[in-house]
Write a structure and sequence with these properties.
By secondary structure, this protein is an alpha+beta fold. It has six helices and nine strands. The strands form two sheets. Strands 1-2-8-9-5-4-6 form a seven-stranded antiparallel beta sheet, sandwiched between helices. The chain has a two-stranded antiparallel sheet with strand order 3-7. Strand 4 and strand 5 form a beta hairpin. Helix 2 runs antiparallel to helix 3.
């Protein structure tokens, strides 16, 4: 299922690089090797990678894509969301719990030695992911996009759009 198109800059502490991956009819897709390596490198010391082969996947808060990260980042993510919810409190001083709800709507999913996992039905449908998924490292997390939907976003760089189009073209696919 893994495509040969994958680019990554050296370094494993942050999620970086991009790749186009094939998604099968059951929603199985492989996390690109560079991003999977970062998942492993961010494991707490002494953790057996074979026992910790999990990725956290959920809906992006503002884009029509998915966000994914390691379990260790979950607490930091919650802390960031909570701070935003408090900072944007309503006139009565109550935190904006919708911020936390949107950001914490995630699932922890197992993946195999090849990085394959099954994209859950609703998030996959919401992100419009069908035959291909474009993975993009974003530092503390990575995003998973349907290539056509990514092309419509004004928040994605022209370079990433061009990379996705190039990888699809090499596969004989058009957007």
């Amino acid at each position: 299922m893994r495509l040969k198109h994958e680019v990554c800059v050296a370094g494993r502490e942050i999620f970086q690089g991009y790749a186009l991956q094939l998604v099968d009819d059951k929603g199985r897709v492989a996390i690109p090797a560079a991003l999977r390596g970062t998942l492993f490198s961010r494991l707490p010391g002494g953790t057996d990678p074979k026992e910790a082969m999990q990725v956290v996947v959920g809906l992006h808060e503002s884009e029509r894509c998915l966000i994914a990260f390691d379990e260790a980042y979950s607490l930091a993510r919650f802390t960031e969301l909570e701070a935003r919810a408090i900072a944007q409190a309503g006139p009565d001083g109550a935190p904006r719990h919708d911020i936390i709800r949107a950001g914490m709507a995630v699932e922890t999913l197992p993946f195999d030695a090849s990085g394959r996992f099954i994209l859950p039905g609703f998030p996959r449908k919401r992100a419009r992911i069908s035959r291909y998924a474009f993975f993009m490292g974003m530092g503390r997390h990575f995003e998973i996009w349907d290539p056509a939907t990514m092309m419509e976003s004004d928040q994605v760089s022209a370079d990433m759009k061009e990379a996705a189009a190039y990888f699809l073209e090499e596969r004989g696919e058009k957007l």
